[in-house]
């Protein structure tokens, strides 16, 4: 992974090599980022305090030249020059922080996707050999499908060869309507080009292979017990959202479910430059999630200890997932929804701290001077933080919460510093 995302991930991985835990690595990484941005934060706070001090003068200009916008802007610029104020200086940290937040969101998503895929591939490799001695990885990579019994017509054959991506060996086997080794995605693509009766026959062969990959209860429990999750405080897996609606491992997929929908639900997509998030690996993962073996492993970790309630809303039909019992909340749920709530509340507090709201009885002129203190800016970022931290991995939520805590502490200390300087200046002037 290259670019800015790769740069951030390489720093995070470097910290993790010393710390050994991604949750605390994210906290230390956040401290490093905020330390680098500290001079800009101080500059922003200084600019904001200067703007607040000249607000009475700015209001006076607005009352005097309110009907002449050109004259008002000219006098306002003169006031800024006289008081040595640069209004854009206060916007610079915000212009840097927002892209940084988006880059971190993308980097954490890529990191979580790669680590989750690596863990699931590790489960595949830890599976015992099948009855014929072959590995599960090999079985999922190349599923033997007999095309001779499907009565495929020459026209259908032509559409398959033209519409499905196949290797040279696969093209030859398909052309001869012989037994061919296909991935589950290739099987699904071929089935879409067949009649319903033919699609049933080819899917039955696929289901026979997947349903034959099983584990005993003891084997499933042993594999589940040996999974090395990246936990942090109350969160069992930092690459899954901190939510009571998420299990530690994702629930098993239905054999009839297509790979694309499974991967989309897990936020897994191929990534250039990654040796883990390749299309072939993701096909193996999606196929493995359909097997009874994976269902047994997930069940051992409590994936079935949830109630799933379909909601029939106007524009979409989501499924509400809740722990089936109070004990399942602590044993089977990945988190307790603490980080999303803390992110929203701390963001609300920080917004009030950095952008003071308007007084209810403030005149219209003052409200125009401070338009950023409106209800939109007050609630937009807290609601956005709640949404993102609830829907994406806990590693990103840890970053967001750590940023808020550090910025609140910085704002408090910077305010104390400038208030002390103001008092010293007033005492010096009084002497």
Question: What attributes characterize this protein structure?
Answer:
431 residues; two-stranded antiparallel sheet; 4 strands; elongated
Based on CA atoms alone, the radius of gyration comes out at 29 Å
The coarse silhouette is: elongated
- The helix/strand class is mainly alpha
Strand content: under 5%
Model regions low in confidence, pLDDT < 50 over at least 5 residues:
356-373
How much helix, percentage-wise, in residues?
55-70%
Count of helices? 19
Task: Describe the model.
- The chain has 431 residues and is mainly α.
- The chain is 64% helix and 4% strand.
- The chain contains 19 helices and four strands.
- It has a two-stranded antiparallel sheet.
- Strand 3 (306-310) and strand 4 (319-323) form a beta hairpin.
- Helix 9 (184-191) packs antiparallel against helix 10 (196-211), helix 11 (217-225) crosses helix 14 and helix 16 packs parallel to helix 19.
- The longest helix has 37 residues, at 394-430.
- The protein is elongated, with a radius of gyration of 29 Å.
- The relative contact order is 0.12.
- The model is unreliable at 356-373 (pLDDT under 50).
Write a concise synopsis of the structure shown:
This protein is mainly α and 431 residues long. The chain has 19 helices and four strands.
Detail the topology: elements first, then pairings.
Elements: H1 3-19, H2 22-53, H3 55-65, H4 69-82, H5 92-126, H6 136-141, E1 143-146, H7 154-163, H8 168-175, E2 179-182, H9 184-191, H10 196-211, H11 217-225, H12 259-265, H13 279-288, H14 292-300, E3 306-310, E4 319-323, H15 326-331, H16 338-354, H17 364-369, H18 375-391, H19 394-430
Antiparallel strand pairs: 1-2, 3-4
């Amino acid at each position: 992974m290259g670019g800015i995302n790769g740069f951030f991930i390489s720093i995070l991985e470097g910290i993790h090599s010393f710390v050994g835990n991604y949750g605390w690595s994210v906290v230390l990484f956040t401290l490093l980022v905020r330390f680098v941005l500290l001079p800009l934060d101080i500059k922003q706070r200084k600019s904001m305090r200067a703007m607040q001090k000249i607000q009475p003068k700015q209001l006076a200009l607005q009352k005097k030249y309110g009907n002449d916008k050109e004259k008002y802007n000219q006098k306002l610029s003169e006031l800024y020059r006289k008081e040595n104020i640069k209004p854009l200086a206060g916007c610079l940290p915000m212009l840097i922080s927002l892209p940084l937040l988006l880059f971190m969101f993308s980097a954490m998503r890529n990191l979580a996707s790669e680590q989750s895929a690596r863990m699931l591939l590790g489960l595949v490799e830890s599976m015992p050999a099948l009855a014929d001695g072959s590995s599960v990885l090999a079985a999922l990579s190349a599923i033997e499908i007999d095309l001779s019994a499907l009565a495929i017509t020459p026209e259908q054959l032509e559409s398959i060869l033209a519409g499905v991506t196949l290797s040279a060996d696969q093209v030859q086997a398909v052309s001869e309507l012989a037994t061919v080794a296909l991935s589950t995605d290739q099987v699904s693509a071929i089935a879409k080009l067949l009649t319903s009766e033919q699609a049933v026959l080819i899917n039955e062969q696929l289901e026979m292979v997947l349903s034959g990959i099983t584990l005993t209860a003891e084997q499933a429990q042993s594999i589940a017990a040996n999974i090395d999750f990246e936990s942090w405080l109350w969160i069992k897996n930092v690459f899954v959202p901190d939510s009571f609606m998420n299990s530690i491992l994702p629930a098993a997929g239905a054999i009839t479910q297509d790979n694309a929908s499974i991967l989309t639900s897990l936020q897994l997509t191929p990534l250039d430059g990654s040796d883990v998030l390749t299309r072939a690996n993701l096909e193996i993962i999606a196929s493995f999630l359909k097997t009874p073996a994976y269902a047994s492993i997930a069940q051992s970790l409590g994936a079935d200890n949830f109630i799933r309630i379909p909601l029939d809303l106007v524009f979409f039909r989501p499924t509400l997932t809740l722990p089936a019992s109070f004990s399942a909340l602590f044993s089977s749920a990945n988190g307790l929804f603490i980080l999303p709530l803390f992110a929203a509340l701390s963001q609300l507090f920080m917004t009030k701290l950095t952008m003071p709201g308007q007084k209810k009885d403030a005149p219209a002129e003052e409200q125009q001077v401070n338009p950023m203190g409106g209800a939109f800016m007050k609630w937009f970022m807290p609601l956005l933080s709640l949404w993102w931290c609830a829907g994406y991995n806990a590693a990103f939520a840890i970053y967001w919460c750590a940023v808020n805590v550090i910025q609140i502490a910085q704002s408090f200390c910077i305010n104390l510093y400038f208030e002390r300087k103001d008092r010293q200046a007033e005492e010096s002037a009084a002497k």
